[in-house]
UniProtKB/TrEMBL annotation:
Its EC number is 3.1.26.4. Residues 156-334 form the Reverse transcriptase domain. PANTHER family: PROTEIN CBG26694 (PTHR37984), RIBONUCLEASE H (PTHR37984:SF13). GO terms for biological process: DNA integration. Residues 989-1006 have a biased composition (Polar residues). It comes from Oreochromis niloticus (Nile tilapia). CDD domains: RNase_HI_RT_Ty3, RT_LTR. InterPro entries: DNA/RNA_pol_sf (IPR043502), Integrase_cat-core (IPR001584), Integrase_H2C2 (IPR041588), Retrovirus_Pol_polyprotein (IPR050951), Rev_trsase/Diguanyl_cyclase (IPR043128), RNaseH-like_sf (IPR012337), RNaseH_sf (IPR036397), RT_dom (IPR000477). Residues 1007-1019 have a biased composition (Basic and acidic residues). Belongs to the beta type-B retroviral polymerase family. HERV class-II K(HML-2) pol subfamily. This is Gypsy retrotransposon integrase-like protein 1. Residues 702-853 form the Integrase catalytic domain.
Length: 1025
């Protein structure tokens, strides 16, 4: 661990936790960690460990990070565990000696191509081999400059030399690199490789390598830079390495990648270079160095770098590791304690997630059965999993299934199943892909014919890879396996197994690299060209091992970036438009260049349609500094208009403000229309738009008899009580029940009590409260023959009659607090309300309900007719609303913006399905069908001519001549909606601003004559003395 006095806590990575501490449970982290740049460090959790150091023992907390960060010892540990700071300083001294040695041999770490001295290689052909001359393949014009630049660089570095004639010629394949560059590769599979005599220099045995490293305490790993290209080829072998390009013939003077004998030739050379050095072993281009102690390690490292410098070799410093306590090498972990199996060999099995369905379970069982002969009592072990495959058995992953699954994974990773890598035995690599993962298994074919796995690997596909075609996913699994097991496969001939038959031809060992294939296939074919393999197509039942890994892949997360993003290059694209850009674009614009010719050269105007917009402004046009101006406004060419519109709308200003700004600086034909379009099409502006203008007032149909339509709602809490309110639409008679509980059951009981007094109404109107739209409530209303109408969600004005009464009742109860109990005050309010003239009907609810007045100390004045009074009040309401609102009509299929009350966006795009009422619609949104009031919808296109106020008035006046009008229940479907004869129809409003203001318009056949004449009140005549 590294000591860090600036950190309070001690940290280890999740990889260290899985390797050493996985037996300890993780708890959620109680601390937020941040790096020195301020970025947050993601944590897996925390646990407590027993720490022993220098005969000291303490139980201390340790935090586990998600990322692969170095282990840190913080102040809490340093306070509990006393360190020997002399040893720490000694380690620091060793580190300074290492830097001294690296500085001494800095020539080895130069970023250049090395040139191996004293050793050259020679290629040998099979007897009676004939030269092969392949013509050059065409190179796309778009990448020709890059190919030519790459060829020139290789010639300059001494890798290539141009020639005029040759009996040998190999075509090249330019492969694009991820950084945008080009890599030139010779397709030697079709020319030299088939006739080369393979070098018979053995690669070092694993046991010999590890024996040479025994006794080492720390290890250093050195990686050579482009190892093959550092080796020179003898003159007589140059002609065989000729490549044919569109620029002519070139010969390799160095050993290129893709030659069959290259691994053996390089291994022989590097063994010769490093011979006699103690504590140093090399496998191809990877060099390991160690020592019994730090001093010996430094001496061996110094001697190794000195030998590399003498032979002119170069090393990639960024890929080297120095003084590591352990290193992973050829599938094993080497440390001071000896040789261990690398956890990466079995990670794909250990971390495989449990199956989520029967298909994944079958794949896992197929993997187990493939190696079943090495696992004892497999059938008994898998019995809980086999039970899930029964057709009559429902899928349920139980604790016994998880236990069997874990035991099966432990058995599969046991030493009895796995075998160590042995260069003497043939190697087989099985690869497979599924729609969500790739997997590979590397195995040995033992002398008795048995197949024993060496290591497993798998990973999930990222978002881009899931979109690959099936052929590309299968090819990806092959390349993934080859890269993962590169140290096992490179320099050896192996058998490649894939269950995708087309790949046996496309990626076959004797097939040329496809020149017209996608870039990724070219890169993959190039990677495989450096290996010697045979490809086979197995049957599905013989491919269960790789198939199981691909269908239960190890989840791989892309690591978060540690860098703090300060500036993006894309900011250049959003830079403001300048006069220089306008000048350049104006010269290239055919219309503006023609207009500038009129002004500068005085040429006559043509008859082009695009020029007509400038003819009327000809006298006001001028040219200044190469830019065309209309007065003081710059005329913007077509190529810059879109960019300037985005710049204009950067602050998300409205249409009017954008036009005002634009008219002060620039102009082009139809600019105003484009400004309107960009503002109306801005998705960000749509999400935060205000509500639309209120819809025209559409009163409810006035029922012809009491208790025909009842509006219900809940009020409260008020004084810790809830109230169930029911108001008759004809008489405005209110019923109020104090509710101790507002459950559906209690609500049905209260409504049943009302229905027992007044009978069942024909219709009920309510909002969408859970008690009022439950299945029990619907069943209750249907059983009583009541049609249930619900308002649009989040639009209480639809149920305005009940909502307005709730406000009046709450106001009365609040103002009467302290003047009696709640029941007493409520009863007094209801008596006064029922006996007082209603603002809409101009008669008392009791008189309209029962055709009589309740007993009171006041006599109500009788209007001549209720109908005339209500008609006048209704006309006033329509006139009042007509001055503020606009009539909007939506047709089915029209695109609108619907009010969203769920997510973070206020408005979402929708399509009108049907009109379910005069001001109600059903609309289709991304996640289903919504019901919305007209006030909750916005038009996304210009609205047609507004309906005039007179049209509304005439429509209402002539409503009696229309046949029946249906009120559709938008909550339930398939119900027949009763109709009301409209010969005496009157309507009522759904929302009123004040209690005493005209609220609803009614019409009734009830006519009452006053029993007494109107009382005339006069002031008394008093005597004066």
């Amino acid at each position: 661990m590294q000591t860090d006095t600036g950190s309070k806590a001690s940290l280890v990575s999740y990889n260290v936790y899985r390797k050493c501490l996985k037996h300890l449970p993780l708890k959620p982290s109680d601390t937020v960690f941040k790096g020195y740049t301020g970025h947050r460090v993601p944590m897996k959790g925390m646990t407590e460990v027993i720490v022993q150091c220098n005969d000291q023992t303490a139980k201390l907390p340790v935090y586990v990070t998600q990322k692969n960060c170095p282990a840190i010892m913080g102040r809490v540990w340093l306070k509990a565990i006393r360190l020997n700071w002399q040893e720490v300083r000694k380690l620091s001294h060793g580190s300074s000696q290492l830097q001294t040695i690296l500085g001494k041999h800095k020539e080895v770490f130069r970023e250049e191509l090395g040139s191996m001295k004293k050793i050259t290689v020679k290629l040998h052909l099979k007897p009676d081999s004939k030269p092969v001359f392949m013509k050059a393949r065409p190179v796309p014009y778009a990448i020709r400059p890059k190919v030519e630049s790459n060829l020139d660089a290789l010639v300059k570095n001494g890798v290539l030399e141009p020639v005029t004639t040759s009996e040998w010629a190999t075509p090249i394949v330019p492969v694009p690199k991820k950084d945008g560059g080009i890599r030139i590769c010779g397709d030697f599979k079709v020319s030299v490789n088939p006739v080369l005599t393979a070098e018979q220099y053995p690669l070092p045995l694993i046991d010999d390598l590890f024996a040479g490293l025994s006794g080492g305490q720390k290890f250093s790993k050195i990686d050579l830079n482009q190892a093959y290209l550092q080796m020179h080829v003898e003159e007589q072998s140059h002609e065989m390495l000729t490549i044919n390009t569109h620029k002519g013939l070139f010969r390799y003077c160095r050993l290129p990648f893709g030659i069959t004998s290259a691994p053996a030739l390089f291994q022989r050379a590097i063994d010769q270079i490093l011979s006699g050095l103690p504590g140093v072993q090399c496998y191809l281009d990877d060099i390991l160095c160690t020592g019994a102690d730090d001093e010996e390690h430094l001496r061996n490292l110094d001697a190794t770098l000195q030998r590399l410098k003498e032979y002119g070799l170069r090393v990639r410093k960024e890929k080297c590791d120095f003084f590591q306590s352990s290193v992973e090498y050829l599938g094993h972990v080497i440390d001071a304690n000896g040789l261990h199996t690398a956890p990466s060999k079995i990670t794909a099995i250990v971390d495989a997630p449990p199956p989520q369905n029967v298909s994944q379970l079958k794949s896992f069982l197929g993997l187990l059965n493939y190696y079943g002969r090495f696992i004892p009592n497999l059938a008994s072990l898998l019995k809980p999993l086999h039970n899930l495959l029964r057709k009559e058995e429902a899928w349920k992953w139980t604790a016994s299934c998880q236990e069997a699954f874990q035991k099966a994974k432990d058995s599969l990773t046991a030493s009895e199943v796995l075998t160590h890598f042995n260069p003497k035995f043939p190697i087989q690599l099985a690869c497979d892909a599924s729609p969500y993962g790739v997997g590979a298994v590397i195995s040995h074919i033992l002398p008795n014919g048995e197949e024993r796995p060496i290591a497993f690997t798998s990973r999930t596909l990222n978002t881009a890879e899931t979109n690959y075609a099936q052929l590309e996913q299968e090819a990806l699994s092959i390349v993934f396996g080859v890269r993962k097991f590169h140290q096992y496969l490179y320099g050896r001939r192996f058998t490649l197994l894939t269950d995708h038959r087309p790949l046996t031809t496309i990626l076959g060992p004797y097939t040329g690299i496809p020149s017209l294939a996608a870039s990724r296939l070219q890169r993959w074919a190039l990677i495989l060209s450096g290996h010697s393999y045979d490809i086979k197509y197995p049957k599905s039942e013989s491919h269960c091992n790789a198939d199981g890994l691909s269908r239960l892949p190890f989840p791989v997360k892309k690591p978060d970036s540690d860098t703090v993003e300060i500036l993006y290059f894309r900011e250049v694209e959003t830079a403001p438009v300048s006069a220089v850009q306008v000048k350049r674009a104006s010269r290239n614009d055919p219309v503006l260049s023609a207009v500038m010719d009129w002004i500068i050269k005085g040429l006559p105007a043509g008859e082009d349609v695009d020029l007509k917009a400038f003819l009327g402004k000809r006298a006001e046009l001028s040219v200044q500094a190469g830019c065309l101006l209309w007065g003081r406004r710059v005329i913007i060419p077509l190529s810059l208009q879109t960019k300037l519109l985005k710049q204009l709308h950067a602050g998300h200003s409205g249409i009017v403000r954008m036009k005002e700004i634009a008219r002060s600086y620039f102009w082009w034909p139809n600019m105003d229309k484009q400004i309107e379009e960009i503002a109306k099409n801005c998705s960000s502006c749509h999400k935060v738009r205000n509500n639309p203008p209120l819809a025209p007032l559409h009163p409810w149909e006035f029922p012809q008899e009491p208790w025909h339509r009842v509006h219900i709602d809940f009020a409260g809490p008020c004084e810790d009580k809830m109230f169930l309110v029911a108001v008759d639409a004809h008489s405005k008679w209110p019923e109020v029940t104090i509710m101790k509980s507002t459950t559906t059951e209690k609500t049905i009981e209260a409504l049943g009590e009302m229905f027992s007094r007044f009978g069942s109404p024909t219709q009920t109107v309510s909002d969408n409260g859970p008690q009022l739209v439950s299945q029990e409530m619907e069943a209750f209303l249907q059983a009583n023959g009541v049609q249930h109408i619900t308002s649009a969600p989040y639009h209480p004005a639809t149920n305005g009659l009940a909502e307005r009464f709730v406000q009046t009742m709450k106001h009365a109860l609040k103002t009467s607090q302290g003047q009696g109990t709640l029941h007493q005050r409520l009863h007094k309010f209801l008596l006064n309300y029922r006996n007082g003239p209603h603002a809409t009907t101009r008669t008392s609810p009791a008189n309209a309900m029962f055709k009589r007045d309740l007993r009171t100390t006041f006599d109500l004045l009788k209007p001549s007719t209720v109908k005339d009074t209500v008609q006048k009040q209704q006309e006033k309401q329509i006139m009042y609303w007509g001055q503020q609102v606009k009539d909007r009509v939506f047709s089915p299929g029209e695109s609108v913006l619907a009010r969203n009350y769920r997510g973070e966006h206020k408005w979402v795009p929708a399509t009108v399905i049907a009109q379910t009422g005069p001001v109600s619609y059903t609309v289709q949104v991304a996640d289903g069908v919504w019901r919305r009031h007209m006030d909750q919808l916005l038009q996304t296109a210009p609205v047609s001519a507004e309906r005039s106020f007179e049209d509304l008035k005439n429509a209402l006046t002539d409503s009696s001549v229309h046949p029946h009008m249906q009120v559709e229940n938008s909550t339930t479907s398939g119900k027949v909606v009763p109709t009301v004869n409209e010969t005496a129809r009157e309507t009522e409003t759904s929302s009123v601003p004040e209690t005493r203001a005209p609220q609803e318009s009614t019409q009734t056949d009830i006519t009452t004559d006053r029993r007494y004449p109107n009382r005339e009140r006069r002031p008394p005549v008093r005597l004066s003395y």
